[in-house]
Amino acid sequence: HMASGFSSFKGASAQKDSELKGTIRISVYNSISSVGLLDGLEQFHQRYPQLALDIGYNHGQTSLANGEIDIALRLDYPQEGRLVVKRVATRVSRFYTLCDAPETNDWIGLTEEFEHLPMMEMGYRYYGTPPSLRLGNLVSIRDAIEKSGIPGPLSTCLARNHPQLVEIDDPLLFSATPLYMIYHETSRNDPIL
Length: 193
Prior knowledge:
Layout: E1 22-28, H1 30-37, H2 41-47, E2 51-56, E3 71-74, E4 83-98, E5 108-110, H3 118-127, E6 133-135, H4 138-148, E7 152-155, H5 156-159, E8 165-167, E9 174-184
Parallel strand pairs: 1-2, 1-3, 5-6
Antiparallel strand pairs: 3-9, 4-7, 4-8, 4-9
């Protein structure tokens, strides 16, 4: 779980966990924060009672180098910058539909800013067309699949507690993508990271 990874944000520090103060600003995809990070929130706050978390999604709109965010969790390995990068998890994605939905050539995908993600690439390969509906995050896609029966990509953890959703059993509709924790090298010794 990503939640257990909260403890890895803390660097070497002589301070006790309960004495660390401040705010950690994290930029992360909505589906990862709503499933992976929030699961461990209670444990995190018990261990670090004086640390606040500011979790949002602002890919490309804020800068690690300028100190606008402290940590980014991304599926893309950064290509430039003075960044420390650690692989912290793997996001497994599949295509889902409703158990009694008729077969269709329509599919639900993410908005164009996410075209490069493996889950979108596998949809294009399998269906051969762009998605008939585009939504901005996987939680919205899950809700749309449940309402329409039109298939779409989800991380397996988002579909886990939704028994009406079934995986489309085809190896073309499966991906496992590394998730990276990224921070600027000038923050390497920050006691709250």
